[in-house]
């Protein structure tokens, strides 16, 4: 190396998390050996007036830099002694940046937990470990009957792995302290957790379809494949997951399990802990930064065997990758809707391919995309057609409410069915996807309505808090007592929300306990868990809620489910509305009647002859999906075509339209094959939070054509005059248009 201290020979090409589609060159100060620096290592670099954490993409000769050598700044510091991401994970992230046409720096940042994005060291204080004391091994959990939490924790130790790390016990802090004080558990050396991972013997005897699913996936371990496990709630999908995971554990391999919602992790975690003798970690937004770093590193270093997480866990490095499971694969929460807009399902499959491991998707209501991939033999369909054990399928009833009087949205027929169910001591579940008291306030005299000043939307009445609130921008104000327009007219609440129905239910069913589950009632930390516990222990008669109820939670004592309003979903402009409605109906229905109690599902509608409803109810989800796929094919819509959506917004309506029109002109100069350019058009809710929103849709029968076009167009957008005056984004494979 040259002796002259001012001579610089090497540069580092760095990906920095900024919304610019390029890499940045920095010089490598003399004292660093360029051979010690590898792609995937984090560095701290000066950027503008601040320091940023970037990732090395390439080490190159100074001659290769396109930056003026006098302007090259040196990196500030190298943060890692080895890359935190493996070559294959970097390959995946490069692919994702290209596929979604998103800046690599932001894509790479997504792969790291917050602490690492902030440049913190990739190490954590060694965890404390605990194991049963001799006294604890002999103790019976029944002794602890006065504390359910301590009892549960003791059971966990007695059935789980020998030693458990404090990170895994973050939900059990108080109980841990109590058991330590009682001498039932004790600190323990960490090596004990490295004992062989294993599933436990209390696995159930699989039925033939479960057996087939388990054997098929296990036979494919060690190579890439995608299986779609389709089965209604209660059909034994989780049991299938667990038996496959047990096999990966016994081979010393790790499993990544992705779920759409954090609220679903605790119940699965508990089942896993009872079944597996291996370290299980969770990764989601309710953990603090240090906890997330710990669990991330646990998987990377291979101490942890199983990670349960939401979308953000997708990129966690795996020391010994064995299997990726994505449960409720149809759920739109797997799509990130801002910044780096990616589909966790699609990227999980790309990851499985690069790692050469199987990917298992599960759902009662697979997305049409996935079912189409089965038709094209890209995915293997594994079906569980009946409920495990002896549980019967629920009975559907379309309840025609045309011309029927309704009380807070409930027909008389429904009310009497509810009475009958409650009289048998069973629980009733009511679903309405609208929270608040009523969706709008109106003046009976002059017609004034509670519009949001910043959105093309109404302010929703929240009567309990005496507020009007916009669910789109968060604006709120006190509930007017006199009409703001005419000052004299009588103000009325128009329409129904869960809060209003709750009040009516209290009048109709005096003495019954009603639990309302929606965003408003479950905001406080721990409140959802408390309500779920109340429901499970039987201290609830009527459960009322929004889409929260459609997701995963099991309510075994519910034998009547009613969906109050399905008609609005039948006439939406969104071509996916029918699919979403069908999935919602089946998912909500899945909450009812498990084990020996046959459930009933009532759908109130003014469209009892609508083909979507009759097909779904008479012939099932599969038949619905086939019909829906035929319609999509005839209309040339996804999955039979591929879409990309440009969105643009600004604080006036003109700029986004002009920008998108200029983009259309640009696109017309390029070769898009058969790609159609649709728009620009106003977004469904044109004004939102004071921003005027427009969009431009590209649609092509060939994915390749579409991506070739984007490859050419995207780098040129920044040269458009208006690009700097609007906020724009690109959504590849958008799910809501
Ligand atoms: P899903 O994940 O599809 O909702 P689960 O795996 O949770 O279904 O199974 C539903 C219920 O049926 C659980 O109580 C489970 O223990 C039970 N179960 C699953 N498989 C079997 C089996 N092969 N034999 C007996 N019971 C089973
Ligand atoms: Zn008025
Ligand atoms: Zn608003």
From TrEMBL:
HAMAP family: PriA. SUPFAM superfamilies: P-loop containing nucleoside triphosphate hydrolases. It comes from Methylomonas subterranea. Its EC number is 5.6.2.4. Its cofactor is Zn(2+). Zn(2+) 2 binds at residues 452, 455, 470, 473. It catalyses: Couples ATP hydrolysis with the unwinding of duplex DNA by translocating in the 3'-5' direction; ATP + H2O = ADP + phosphate + H(+). One of its GO terms (molecular function) is hydrolase activity. Belongs to the helicase family. PriA subfamily. Transmembrane segments: none annotated. Residues 218-384 form the Helicase ATP-binding domain. Binds 2 zinc ions per subunit. Initiates the restart of stalled replication forks, which reloads the replicative helicase on sites other than the origin of replication. Recognizes and binds to abandoned replication forks and remodels them to uncover a helicase loading site. Promotes assembly of the primosome at these replication forks. This is Replication restart protein PriA. Keywords: ATP-binding, DNA replication, DNA-binding, Helicase, Hydrolase, Isomerase, Metal-binding, Nucleotide-binding, Primosome, Zinc. Component of the replication restart primosome. It holds the Pfam family Zn_ribbon_PriA. InterPro entries: DEAD/DEAH_box_helicase_dom, Helicase_ATP-bd, Helicase_C-like, P-loop_NTPase, PriA, PriA_3primeBD, PriA_3primeBD_sf, PriA_C.
């Amino acid at each position: 190396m040259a002796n002259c201290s001012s001579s610089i020979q090497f540069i580092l090409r760095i990906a920095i998390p900024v919304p610019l589609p390029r890499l940045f060159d920095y010089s490598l100060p003399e004292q660093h050996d360029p051979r010690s620096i590898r792609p995937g290592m984090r560095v701290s670099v000066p950027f503008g007036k601040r320091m940023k954490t970037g990732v090395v993409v390439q080490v190159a000769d100074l001659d290769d830099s396109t930056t003026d050598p006098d302007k090259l700044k040196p990196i500030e510091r190298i943060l890692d002694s080895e890359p935190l991401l493996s070559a294959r994970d970097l390959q995946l992230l490069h692919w994702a940046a290209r596929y979604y046409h998103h800046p690599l720096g932001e894509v790479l940042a997504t792969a790291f937990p917050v602490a690492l994005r902030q440049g913190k060291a990739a190490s954590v204080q060694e965890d404390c470990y605990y194991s049963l004391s001799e006294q604890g091994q002999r103790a019976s959990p029944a002794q602890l009957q006065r504390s359910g939490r301590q009892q549960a924790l003791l059971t966990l130790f007695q059935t789980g792995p020998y030693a458990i790390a404090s990170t895994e016990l973050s939900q059990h802090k108080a109980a841990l302290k109590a058991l330590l004080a009682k001498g039932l558990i004790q600190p323990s050396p960490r090596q004990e957790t490295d004992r062989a991972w294993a599933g436990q013997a209390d696995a159930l005897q699989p039925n033939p379809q479960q057996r087939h699913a388990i054997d098929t996936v296990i036979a494919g371990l060690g190579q890439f494949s995608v299986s779609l496990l389709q089965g209604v709630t209660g059909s034994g999908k989780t049991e299938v997951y667990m038996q496959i995971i047990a096999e990966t554990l016994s081979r010393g391999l790790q499993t990544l399990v992705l779920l759409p919602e954090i609220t679903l992790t605790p119940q699965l975690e508990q089942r896993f802990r009872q079944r597996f003798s291996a370290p299980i970690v969770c990764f989601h937004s309710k953990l603090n930064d240090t906890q997330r770093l710990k669990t991330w590193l646990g998987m990377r270093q291979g101490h942890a065997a199983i990670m349960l997480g939401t979308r953000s866990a997708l990129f966690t490095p795996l020391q010994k990758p064995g299997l990726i499971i994505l449960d409720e694969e149809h759920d739109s929460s797997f799509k990130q809707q801002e910044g780096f807009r990616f589909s966790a399902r699609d990227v999980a499959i790309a990851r499985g391919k690069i790692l050469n491991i199987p990917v298992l998707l599960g759902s009662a209501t697979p997305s049409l995309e996935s079912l189409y991939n089965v038709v094209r033999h890209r995915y293997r369909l594994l079906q569980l057609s009946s409920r495990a054990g002896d549980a019967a399928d629920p009975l559907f009833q379309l309840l025609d409410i045309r011309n029927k009087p309704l009380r807070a949205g409930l027909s008389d027929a429904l009310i009497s069915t509810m009475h009958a169910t409650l009289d048998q001591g069973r629980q009733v579940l009511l679903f309405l996807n609208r929270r608040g008291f009523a969706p709008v306030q109106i003046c009976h005299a002059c017609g004034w309505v509670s519009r949001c000043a910043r959105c093309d939307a109404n302010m929703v009445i929240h009567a309990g808090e005496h507020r009007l609130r916009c669910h789109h921008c968060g604006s709120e104000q006190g509930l007017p007592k006199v009409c703001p327009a005419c000052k004299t007219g009588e103000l009325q609440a128009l329409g129904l929300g869960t809060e209003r129905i709750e009040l009516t239910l209290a009048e109709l069913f005096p003495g019954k306990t009603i639990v309302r589950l929606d965003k408003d009632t479950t905001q406080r930390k721990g409140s959802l868990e408390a309500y779920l516990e109340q429901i499970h222990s039987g201290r609830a008669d009527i459960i009322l809620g929004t889409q929260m109820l459609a997701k995963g939670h099991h309510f075994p004592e519910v034998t009547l489910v009613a969906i109050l309003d399905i008609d609005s979903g039948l006439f939406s402009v969104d071509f996916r509305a029918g699919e979403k409605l069908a999935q919602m109906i089946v998912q909500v229905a899945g909450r009812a009647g498990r084990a020996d109690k046959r459930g009933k599902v009532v759908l109130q509608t003014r469209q009892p002859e609508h083909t979507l409803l009759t097909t779904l109810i008479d012939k099932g989800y599969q038949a619905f999906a086939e019909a829906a796929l035929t319609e999509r094919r005839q209309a040339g819509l996804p999955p039979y075509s591929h879409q990309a959506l440009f969105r643009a917004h600004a604080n006036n309506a003109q700029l986004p339209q002009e920008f998108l029109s200029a983009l259309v002109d640009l696109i017309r100069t390029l070769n898009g094959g058969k790609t159609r350019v649709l728009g620009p058009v106003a977004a469904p809710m044109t004004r939102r939070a004071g921003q005027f929103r427009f969009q431009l849709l590209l649609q092509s029968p060939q994915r390749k054509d579409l991506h070739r076009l984007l490859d050419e167009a995207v780098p040129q957008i920044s040269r458009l005059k208006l690009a700097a005056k609007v906020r724009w984004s690109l959504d590849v494979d958008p799910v809501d248009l």
